[in-house]
Structures are given as C-alpha cells and as structure tokens.
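Methods — Computational structure assignment.
A single polypeptide chain was analysed. Its primary sequence is given first, followed by the predicted tertiary structure written as structure tokens.
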Amino acid sequence: KDVIRIGGLKSNTAYNITTKYKVLNDARDNRGLEDLGFGPVSEMAECVTAPTSLVRDLAVTDVTSTSLSITWVKPEKDTNGVNITYILKVREVGASESESIIVDKRFTETSHQVTGLSPSTLYEIFINTKTDLSSSQHVTLLQATAPGAIPFPEVKTVEETSVTLIEKLSLVELPEGATTSKLLVRYTEVEVDSEAEITPVGDPIDQEIDLEGNSDDKEFTIDGLVGGKSYEVTVQLKIAFNEEILPSDFTEDLIITTPFGGTETEKVKRRFDGIKDKTNDMIDDISGEVDRESEKLDTLGTELEQFINQATRDLQTFSSVFRQNTTAQESILTGIAKRYCIESGINYHTGSILKSQSTGSIFECLAACRDSTDCNGASWDTKTKMCRMSRQRRGDQIDNQKQMVSINRVCYDTLTGASSKWKNCIKIDTDFTGSGITGGQSRGFGSEWDCMGWCLTTANCQSITYEASDGRCRLNSKPFGDSQTSHSGFISISLQCMQA
C-alpha cells in the first residue's frame, strides 16, 4: 500500500477525497514512457480532520485512597467558531468501556476531581477533544490510588517510657508498580475519663520510619514516654508510585497506658518488698520486747523464763516468714495461681529458636527468658534439661510431648490471683456485652491470655471477650460488661476480678 500525506488542511473540516491513476506504457524504443492518460476516478471517501492538536501536560495531583485530581493544558492549536469539549475517561487497568467513568468537560476547563475509586488500584486515564464532526487522538496516563487504612498495629511490649509495636505490612495490598516508602507514626498524650471519653493534653508528635521498599511486618519502638500516662497512637503508610509519595488513610486510634514505675512483674515485686519491710519492723519489735523482758529476768523467776522461751519461739517463726519473703521471686509468688500459663506435656514449636541453654527447672528457664531480649515464651525438656526460648508467647504450633513443660512468660508475669477465685473470673461459653471500648477490637490473637495482655496495656480496660475460632479479641470498659449472655466458643475474663 502507498501512503500519501496531505498537508495544508483546516482543522475540524470535512473533505471529500478521490483518487485516479495515470497509465504509462514503456515504448522500449528509446522514446521513454508513453502517456496513455488517466484511469477512472475512485469512489469518494469523506474525511474529517481533528478539532485540535493533542491535549498537553496531562497530570494527576492530590491522590487519596478513593479520589484523585486530573489537570491538563489546552491544546496548542484548535478551531475557532466550533463547539469543542474534552472527553475524560477513567477506568481500572483491564476494565471495559462500559466500566469506565466518562465525563464531558467544557473547553475552558483544565481540571477535574474523580471520586468513588477503589484503594490500592491502578487506573488508566484518557483525554481527547471532540466536536460534532471529529475527535482528536487520546492522551493517556497510568495512576495508582493510595492504600486505605492499614491493619491495626499489634502491641508487643509496653514499658514505663516506651512501647514496641508491630505493623502487619505483609497484609497490605499494594497497587501494581508501587513500593513501600515510610511509616508515619503519630502519637499524642491523652486523658481518659471514667466514661471512656478521650481528651488530648499535648500536641501530636510524628515519627517517620524508613521502609525502603520492604513489605515484611515492621517492628518499631516509640521512646520518650512518661510512666503512668495514656497515649493515642495512629499509623499511616506512605507508598511510592512513579516518584510520587501516596499516603494511606490513618489506622484507628490505639490507646496505650504506660505502667508507672516498671512492668507488672516489677509491681508485684515491690508489693512483696513492702511485706518484707513490714516483717523487718515486726522482728525489730519482737527483739525489743525480748530485751525488755530479759532485763526483768532476775526478778520474775521461773514464770519470766517461760515467757522468754515463748518469745524466742515467736522470733524464730517470724524469722522464717522473713526468709520466705526475701527468697527468689518464684518462691515469693508461691500459692499464686499460674496453671493457665504453665502447660505440662505441651511443647511450643518455635520455628527459629531465639536462644537455648541448659536449666535446672521450668522456673530457671523462665528466669533465663526474662534475661533474654525479645523472649516471650519457652519450652523446657525434663529429660535433657534444655530450655528453648521464643519471641512468640505460645510458639508457631503446639504439640503434646510427655517430657515437655512450656510457659507463656507474658501470661505468667502479668496475671495474678488466688486459684480458688479463677472460676469466678473466667467465664467459659459466655459473652460480656454492652461495654466494648472504641477501637478495642481486633483479630489474630493466639489465646485469651494474648487478648488479656492487650487489655493490661489499654486505658479503662476492665475485661475481655475472646472468640477462639478466629482469634477475635474485644476489650470492655466494665468488669463483667453491661450483661452476660451464653455464647458457645466465647471466653470472657474480668481483669478486675483476676487482680483482686
């Protein structure tokens, strides 16, 4: 096929085009080609030129998870005296024409905002000019929307001046061609009243964490907090697309209360240190009494000697109490119910072992876990005496093994209470209803004790309801909710009752 370019035409104008050909005959007698005239005229074709040149500088700004703004510059050349409009189309990559958002814009306009889009989705954008006679060629652009709200961060540890969280980036779906850039962590000191009303008492503080394209779960720490204060924490993911940063929606607010003066275990130790001090005072009082009675020995005779012997026996009794109250922490806690935190005949499969060492007992194994950074659970072999420590509270998987004893450190170090009262605090197949805390509901918890660990770090949390089938944890603002209803598979625990 021969292609002939015809120049000098007017834009937005209809032309009738016909062709004919000239016949030349080779005379082969050195006279050159012989002109035999034109052939017949072809059928007429009608052609309408475009109304303008191409739209210029098509661009996108103000991208969110559900909207974006499109801007452009008027074509360099256009036709005067005719009605020209822009045809703007937006659709997901791979979608059909019928699934497109199609908008007509006046020729004087140079921008349009598109709403109702889907988060983390790649869109095609088309724009061209059009009159009653013809249309210009499309100018196209690819643009991704930002992610919606990312998953609620998981609380790993809460200390007096810091909190460590884990953002589940592995669960975030990114649009094609986008990569992770940063996490923006925003936290504000707040006050929480008895009605669970939250009032900010300080200015928000922003902390940015570089991700460098990594989409694995990200652990991070917020430092510089104050013990005994409540903080509102929210997280935003920033992704990179075509050298542009797109921010996600912020997560729901997470309320965290830092412990005053240390962890729950340290608080228990201080409480028993108080008992020790009182015991010392009692011993001093008895010793003084013995001294005073000894001074009367010469005059009181046999009766006074019997009294001294009895006082000596009392002193020995109180000395024994003193020794019991100043032994290792495990002896201090003798009698405190922990059977839900220590599991005999159970092995926690930890995957990659954090640390292993030989210990004499499950309690020595627990002490080694406490001394090891990031250890939250351990399994101890009664035959080999090996203690295997893990970052996870109950491991990746639980297996029955007769010689094994496993311990959930977070459960053990945070929950106290006499065993006789546990049956009143733990309600099997029961749902505490009507007092859920705003933002205090999430899935993915391994056990009711993991759920209770979240309650212990959340302001105004008085009880929990845990659904084992999907790991759902709900925090409640009242010790037993507004009411209690029977619900198979639910476990509800009153924190106030457990700590009484």
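Note: The chain is about 20% helix and 40% strand.
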